[in-house]
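Re: the request from the purification team.
They wanted to know what the chain is likely to look like in 3D before they choose a buffer screen. I agreed to run a prediction and write the result into the notebook, where they can find it.
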Amino acid sequence: MSVVAAPSPVLGVPGAVAAVPESPDAAVAWHYGDPFAEQRAAVERVAIVDRSHRFVFTISGAERLSWLHTVSSQHVAALADGESAENLDLDLNGRVQHHFVLTELDGTVWVDTEADRGSALLDFLTKMVFWADAKPQEATDYAVLSLLGPRTDTLLPALGIEALPDTYGAVALPGGGFLRRMPWPTPDSFDLIVPRADLLRWWTALTEAGAEAAGLWAFEALRVAALRPRIGMDTDERTIPHEARWIGGPAEHGAVHLDKGCYRGQETVARVHNLGKPPRRLVLLHLDGSADDRPVTGDPITAGGRAVGRLGTIIDHYELGPIALALVKRAVPADAKLEAGPMAAAIDPDSDQHDDTPQAGRLAVERLRGR
């Protein structure tokens, strides 16, 4: 069941334009009048983005990390205070069910994820507790803002902290909540998880200190350009972690640690990593903007009339023009002539990680067979 977040109070800020009602982002501003300038501000200066429709919950209890380690794909058992990671929940066949970001701070694990998937993730984790000392609980009184840009350090006085943390690091904010550094969608990206009652106060303080208002259009365009998939948009019910570039621990900015076991779906992850190849790969597409109509997320990508992939997020980038993320079959060459609905499409060669090198496990099997 789809969950619709309540409209953000930041939508009342002058110039805020909400996303279309059917969008998963309808609760927050899509832009503030100049989407391309907002993207440039996020890359060259510092911009603030309202992402308060994210679903936030906490996990308390002495065994919160050791328990979460056993039911998810990331290595989090030894996560230190003030450290964060990205994580996945997989089904028994290794297909991605949920993607979430977590932060360990002051004896509590903070989790944020997509609004329409948060309740299902929280319900699954609650059912998996059994006898562990871990208590997942929704935190509706907290919300997410994001700061993007190389001049974020100029906001330190307004933030009330002395220094910005390193990647996946987190520091407590005065009055509750924390600031966390992320490796995407830009090299200088920060999330604030703050009391929802203070959301507008934080927005006002940070914009008065120099942060420029940017809508979710800016965040999404930069995310797509950075090849960071969004679950439910750039994935489908068949997506496995290798297809979506989620392999790796925090050091690799991934969500699936390969040096751990004991989680649902690990057999598929290990088999693909050691013996096979994922059937699809995530790429960046450049779209022909001259077409009158646009495709939509989920539309097929075709080559010579044959379906070869699935279209994900479609967005206009301030420098790249119309772009999209897509899952395409592994056999599709990087220079293939593609169509996305009425638009011609081409794979960005710099985004392609096509690799036919046999895995070490496959080579070992062949050696045992005398080949």
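For the purification team: The longest strand covers residues 306-317.
Please add any questions underneath this entry.
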